[in-house]
Known about the structure:
Largest sheet of chain A: 4 strands, parallel
Order of helices and strands of chain A: EHEEHEEHEHEHHEHEHHEHEHHHHH
Structural class of chain A: alpha/beta
CATH superfamily of chain B: Histidine kinase-like ATPase, C-terminal domain
Strand order of the largest sheet of chain B: 1-2-3-5-4
CATH topology of chain B: Heat Shock Protein 90
Largest interface: A-B, 27 and 31 residues
Number of strands of chain B: 5
Number of domains of chain B: 1
Number of helices of chain B: 5
Number of domains of chain A: 3
CATH architecture of chain B: 2-Layer Sandwich
Radius of gyration of chain A: 27 Å
Oligomer: heterodimer
Shape of chain B: globular
Shape of chain A: elongated
Strand content of chain A: 5-15%
Structural class of chain B: alpha+beta
Helix content of chain B: 25-40%
Largest sheet of chain B: 5 strands, antiparallel
Strand order of the largest sheet of chain A: 6-5-8-9
Amino acid sequence: MTEPYYHSVRFDLGLCDGCLACVRACPTDAVRVRRGAAVMLEDRCIDCGECFKVCARRAVRTLTGSLAELSKFDYTVAVPSPALYTQFDTEVAPAVVLEALRRVGFDDAAGMSSACAATSIAINHYLAGYRGQHPVISSFCPTVVRLIQVKYPTLLDQLLPMLSPRELTARDVRRRTMEETGLPADRVGVVYVTPCPAKMVSLVDHPGMDRSYFDSAVSIGDLFLHLMGAIAEVEEEGQAPLETETATGLSWALATGVAASRPAEDTLAVAGLPNVVRILDDIEKGKLGRYAFVECHACPEGCVSGVLTVEDPYVARARAIRLVRTLGPDRDLDRDRVWRESEAGAFRMPHRITPRPMRPLHDDIAIAITRMTDRDRVLSLLPRIDCGACGAPTCDAFADDVVRGEVTDDACVFVREKRIEALVKDLAALVRRQAPSAVGREPS
Amino acid sequence: MSATFSRVFEIHGRDFTNAGRVSTEIKDLLKRMGIDAALVRRVAIASYEAEMNVVMYARHAVLILTVTPAAVALEIADEGPGIPDVDLAMQEGWSTATSEMREMGFGAGMGLPNIRRNSDAFTINSMVGHGTRLSIRVDVM
């Protein structure tokens, strides 16, 4: 029913020493250590990048593009996440960062601010006409979307069915570049500068879209050093480029970017995966129906704390706040025009986002129910201390693996020890029971 | 079709800190068994409302979850004040919630009606001074 998932993280089995750090960090229990190395359960992974963040052996690789790929196109345009502007000293204006991108190999660079501003208005338009169950949940963080597809499919109807500002920007940039250069679509490369692996995945496999408007993505971390040099160069020339980014655009790098343009009494902003999980649980139980909109980010401070960023998330956050204060308001923003465009469907995702529920204990419900009872029996043998020695993150997850037949219960050291003890006792009893007359007698 | 899974949960009255955990766990178990998403949602809403009723009004309750391929059933028996007029309590908007409960977003008088709306079979028995027993069944299509 579901095609295999494309994921942006891969484990390098040569480097993995089976230390369990990723197993414990994974918010969806998608990693096991088997035969001494990490294994991903693809149906559960939501591409959050937590495993990448915690791996001390650098055995978790994220698959982002490189600058070398730019040569595949005749003309390339970089579209940076607003989080990029927070990675450098506060005195560095976004316009300087965009100029620096043009010097490290891109033909042009375009910010997302105007798309962010238009999207804020379009969200209000969508919510004004929305008649479904409340609250509506933001869909701009791809990890949150994956989490809902995998673990909360009942909430898919409440996901905001709108294109993200990054996709809108890519769409506009491609159209404009084709007009200006006369090049065909496939000769123009639109490249996202990404703070996280999840957005890399969304380029290859974008829920709700046939395909992303981006051709590739490079990580903020990979560009950082190149950009440092180029920024110094631009600054030395002393000619400040014209600023095109705005306060709205920068606020979208934070966990409250959308909420900032909504009334506080009917909007929640939630950040950090454990918190997002809790709020989705509450929404699924019918709570929070009096809120119109919930903004959700997988990373604790929003995109400024993405796992592929360089700067400390709190430093980045402080810089974003300062930039929000110093940058100008949105120019040329025609609210009525945005409202009309939204009416005409310009912001709509072309398709419904489909569920990708994690594998149940069995596809046949009757067998799954029987396995659930078996699972309780397995759990009763386990110490329930989630030690991880079996390679699963919790005793609960281990019990799932056992009833699925993927491992045997004696992969648990406690079960094994008890079983060996019982065997030793049996063996001792057996030795004692042997008839003394039969012991030590020489064959005649 | 003899496959049955059953589990017993305890709910403690006045324990607002842990309120909602039982229904979260039930939801998680149903998803592991691959129960249809729309059905999980109905059970989640019904069990949460029932759990909150215990937390707000009763001292203690035992909840029994039973899952078969045909239906999910919940039995909640509490030790509490009971409901003097069950018909009145089943009316939307009727509530005896205190102002603190209302401040927490409860007491809109939607709890029991909401449980009934989300179930295919629903019975309620109450004895004043002893407690209330709810039986809820949600059918697989």
